[in-house]
Design a protein that fits this description.
about 0% strand; elongated; mainly alpha; about 325 residues
């Protein structure tokens, strides 16, 4: 090569580079394809007891009265998922756990998960098993077992089919359950049990209101008592995660009363009272609109559809009133 003379570029340089890159990519792809498939972390079993306990401990203080329970990485309720993983660890590593070194930890963690799933009797049993061993968990386990016993007792205060024939007896049972829960609440304020007790109080109020709604036609004052029970439910549990459900129940009852009023007092008859009709319509419509205007609420779509159907009904009533 003469000095000062530039060597001409080979015409196939770029093509060779592209071919080489393609070949390397195919080799890497073939290597990846021949290897074991990557495991989806959502379905990976727990690697250690510490992993399960750490996740559960993080969510024990959650206020499940005001907010929905947390979900784990599989999309399952974190308390149910933790309980399943604890049980699976006991089965898979039964030999390693035979010495019983972690029996108190596992039983205590199971109790924490079970009490959030309303399995209070099983939770109390798990706590007592954890308290059998002298450990830092023993005092907390005994206290939790006692609280779960009281919660289990409150759940057992439920009307039987024989009780349903006597409305006063049924309401007395619900009052007794509420009194028991009210007695527990001051002792658990500031702990995660406060949310659990309030959830049980809310369920009691829902059951009471549902009973009064179902039996309102058997009592001359049944409509007033049913409305009062649901209104009290809405006010008492306005901070609950279920507040929109309670408002929807109240709106549904007002809508049902409106339909019953029209059936009892046809619009073309002289017994039809327009102010009374408008009062019922306004109450139901206002509640439906309040829920339907809440972005992100799970009840938004249901409230919007019910409002649409209810307004169609009221238009039919107005047409019947003013048609010749």
């Amino acid at each position: 090569m003469k000095p000062g003379v530039r060597t001409p570029r080979r015409p196939f340089g770029r093509a060779r580079a592209r071919a080489l890159a393609l070949g390397v990519g195919l080799v890497l792809a073939a290597g990846c394809a021949s290897g074991p498939p990557k495991e989806d972390p959502r379905y990976r079993p727990a690697e250690s007891l510490l992993e399960v306990v750490a996740l559960l401990r993080r969510h024990v203080p959650d206020d499940t009265y005001r907010f929905e329970p947390a979900l784990d990485y599989t999309g399952r309720n974190v308390y149910r998922g933790s309980l399943l993983r604890l049980e699976n660890l006991e089965k898979v590593h039964s030999e390693a756990l035979r010495a019983g070194t972690f029996d108190d930890v596992i039983s205590f963690a199971k109790g924490r998960a079970l009490e959030r799933l309303r399995a209070y009797e099983l939770a109390a049993t798990s706590y007592r098993k954890a308290a059998e061993r002298e450990s830092p968990l023993r005092l907390d386990a005994l206290r939790s077992a006692s609280l779960c016993d009281a919660l289990a007792e409150s759940v057992l205060l439920a009307p039987t089919p024989e009780d349903l024939a006597d409305a006063n007896r049924v309401l007395g049972i619900y009052d007794a359950r509420t009194a028991l829960l009210n007695a527990i609440l001051p002792d658990v304020e500031g702990t995660h049990y406060a949310a659990i007790v309030r959830e049980e109080m809310e369920r009691t109020d829902v059951a009471r209101a549902g009973f009064l709604v179902d039996t309102r036609r058997l009592d001359p004052d049944g409509d007033v008592r049913a409305l009062g029970a649901i209104q009290q439910l809405v006010v008492a549990h306005r901070e609950s995660k279920n507040t929109n459900q309670h408002l929807l129940s109240l709106a549904n009852l007002y809508a049902e009363l409106t339909v019953e009023y029209v059936e009892t007092h046809p619009p073309e008859s002289l017994s039809f009272d327009p102010p009374r009709f408008e009062e019922l319509v306004e109450a139901a419509s206002r509640l439906y609109e309040a829920i339907a205007n809440q972005d992100g609420a799970t009840e938004k779509l249901e409230a919007a559809r019910r409002l649409e159907a209810f307004l169609a009904f009221t238009l039919q009533v107005d047409r019947d009133r003013f048609s010749p």
